[in-house]
Amino acid sequence: MIHTRKLTRNFVVKKETVEAVKGVDIDVAPGELVAFLGPNGAGKSTTLRMLTTLLKPTSGTATVAGLDVAADPAGVRARIGYIGQGNGGGHSYRVIDEMVMQGRFYGMNATDAKARAEELLTSLELTDLAKRTVIKLSGGQRRRMDVALGLMHSPQLLFLDEPSTGMDPQNRANLWEHITRMRAEHGTTIVLTTHYMDEADSMSERVIVIDHGTIIADDTPARLKADLAGDLFAVEVAAGSAAGVRPLLRRAAAGGEVEEGAYDGMVRFRLRITHGSRLAPGLLKQMHDAGAPALSMELKPPTLDDVFLELTGRSLREGADA
Amino acid sequence: MLGQATRDEAALKKPGLRQVLRDTWYVFCREMLLPLRDPFSLVFSLLQPLVFLALFGPLLGSAVGAPAFGGQSTLQWFLPGVVVMIALFGTSMTGSNLQYELMTGSYERILATPLSRSSLMIGRALKEWAPLVVQGMLIAIVCVPFGFTFYPLHVVFGLIILGIFGIGLGALSYSLALVSQSKEWIFWAVQQTLLFPLMILSGIMLPIEAGPEWMKVASGFNPLTYLVNAERELFAGSIGLDTLLGLVAAVVTAIVGLVVGIRTISRSTR
Fold first, then answer.
1. Phi then psi dihedrals of residue A206, to 5 deg
2. Given A24, A102, A169, B151, which is the most exposed site by the fewest CB atoms within 10 A?
3. Number of domains in chain B
């Protein structure tokens, strides 16, 4: 569905060339649900804007829905849906008018556009608002309308740029319910950008981590976490027996860092171990055999933020609200 | 890399005329929804030129004197000017309506549809022009009892020339809105700074013939001058050289406007 080779985009800011996207190769198969994850300014949106023909690549190639973005941008646009960061409805227009016109823009006839608009208004729970002007809608209602606009022509490939930014948790869940239902019904390929790692984690089947304009990881959330971060394993032992378990834990961390802190006559060790839930019981037994039984233990599965931290040395959270 | 860019440019699939016309119609329809859903704004826009004619017309006649109008009645001379003025103000506002859509995501949403780029500009410019057809006819009819001779077919032709000119001016206004994105005041500064000298130097308000030599020379370089002359000839019921020159000025403005506009759209990046 998407194939890019060495896709690059430079911007000139104050006579200095900034490489926003540095030669990325992306392949997305039909039916996939892929998230571009990365901090703001990483190049996610720039990549998306090139794939949707809103921005010309500086160099490299991109084939989207079977067509070259440089040679046939209008053809690409006809086959894809795009839901941008902003609200798509014109402020002074009525919801239904914008929906029908959107259908006409994609070449639907008036009857089909009207029927499709009504169908989408129903499924997105906007029917009562059909005749309201966009400016009178709440933030969540506008976002649902954006989704409706993006789906008017039933695209086989849908791009969403930061779909849930600024939405409250309830509206976010609601939005995702619609997106997943539509995907289940029509097998739509979905590509989205997000800086919410929990969203990328729970919703997408594949995460492409982008930082400084390059792809630094590309896999399922589960495998990214297992391969790159490992589970956080914390254990407390009596201060007197700490020396006995230190080599054991170093070995378990397999070269990773072992933090330790002493308080109240206890020492607390923190380390990351891959497949922690499988290895932890054995490790506890070894500690016991070494004469340093664990007084308490904590095992936390990794998040995509841990993956990002492992890859870049920075937390995704720090840059998220910039 | 340069070689690659040129090759891509050459291979670029261009929309056909049929598609541009169809797309223009859709863009026009969407734009027209605003005045149609809010008809009061239309009524109001019809009253404005009438007020202008009623208040400025009599002053003009007594202040300048009949000889400067080439033997025509003041109204016969002034009315075509007012029509050009409405066209000028209307179509140069094309970009200002776009500014609101640039601030939200609706312009980007429309940019992501397969609509051809030229249709985005032409459709919007024609929306600013469409009320002019009604306005022009209406004020012409209203002026008949006051000594204005109405030649309907000539007036319609005059309005079509203004429409062609309006496409060019609208496209330029559209480009201005795109390049002044995030600094809205620049749009107004440029639009106002250009509009008034262009208007005065075209002889819309007062005859240029009454002014100093340098003004006459300057007005020769103003495309609007030819447009105003063409409208005066047409509204007086004849078709001649002035009409032809006006049509040429309108077509040239339209071509320049669309070329600038399409380049600006494809270059505009956020």
1. -145, 135
2. A169
3. 1
Residues 6+ away with beta carbon under 8 Å from A135: A91, A92
| Interchain contact A149–B (C-beta under 8 A) | yes
The 10s digit of each residue's pLDDT in A190-200 is 999 887 777 88
Chain A positions touching B4 (Cβ under 8 A) are 59
Question: What's the rounded Cα separation, in Å, for the pair A40 and B120?
Answer: 31
CB distance A94–B37 less than 8 Å?
Answer: yes
Residue B69 placed within a domain:
no
**A60 inside 8 A of chain B by CB:** no
Q: Could you report the per-residue pLDDT of B232-264, keeping only the tens digit for each?
A: 999 888 899 999 999 999 999 999 998 998 888
| Closest-CA residue of chain B to A83 | B109
Partner residue opposite A93 with nearest CB, options B33, B114, B115: B33
Cα–Cα distance between B111 and B105 in angstroms, integer?
10
Which domain does B200 fall in, by range?
A: 23-28+35-60+82-267
Q: Which of A101, A137, A157 to mutate to test the interface with B (most CBs of B within 10 A)?
A: A101
Domains of chain A: 2-225 (3.40.50.300), 231-301 (3.30.70.100)
Quote the tokens at residue A203. 């919703």
> CB distance A75–B114 less than 8 Å?
yes
Does B116 sit within 8 Å of A72, measured CB to CB?
A: no
Closest CA to A37 of A225, A222, A199, A227: A199
Residues in chain B: 270
